[in-house]
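Allow me, if you will, to draw on your knowledge of protein folds for a short while. The matter concerns a single protein, recorded as an amino acid sequence and a row of backbone structure tokens. Could you please explain, in whatever detail you think fit, how the structure tokens follow from the sequence? I remain grateful for any guidance, and I place the record below:

…
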Amino acid sequence: MRFGSRQGSEQSATVPGDPRAVPVEYVRYALLGLAHHGRAARVLMVGLGGGTFTTLVHRALPGVSVDAVEIDPVVVEAARSWFGLREDARYRVHVADAADWLRRDRGAYDYVLLDAYAGEDIPAAVASEAFFRDVRARVAPGGVVAINIAEPNASGVAAARAFAAVFTPFECRRTAVDGNVIVFASNGPRLPDPMATQRWLADWDARGVTDFSLRALAALPVGGATCERLLGAAVRAP
């Protein structure tokens, strides 16, 4: 799935017949937010794309309920037609403006992944401090929030700074190949327990849910110059 043009960057990809494959790099890293929480029961994604992340979570974690909010019905239809999106009682897709939906719905989530893009840019409506405060109101105590920044310049910098003004970033990663930046944050002073995170990662790998080791991915270096430029001293390590 590409936005804007056929030459645009890949936003979603899947391997037909191989549900364990996760070809899009940032989706692999986004799974780390579940590990940082350790016992998430409710997950929210803002921006569906092909639904590869939410479909994987739905398949791999049968005790977890998943909501996704996507403003463009064409994107949702493409996810259903080409990426195997299948909703049920645990997996619901809401066609709505995320800013309006967050203020209207009253559920609380353990892990929220923010991945709303128009081409390479983050729309201003979902990149402001006001929007992030609405997100924070929907995060359960001890919850984890992550934002995917595909273009760590211009609008990406502004979004990262606004995000860090509302949440407490504790980890920042840049994907090795595509150059996406994923910032993980808490909604308060409590940071993830590294031992609990490692136990969750070991269990994930032991079940063979994906065709790569998430534990090995988590062991790769964090931070870097791009993260420092985006967030400065805002990241607090656990």
Q: What stands out?
A: The chain has one domain: 25-231. The radius of gyration is 16 Å. DSSP finds ten helices and seven strands in the chain. Strands lie at 42-46, 65-70, 91-95, 109-114, 139-149, 168-174, 181-186.
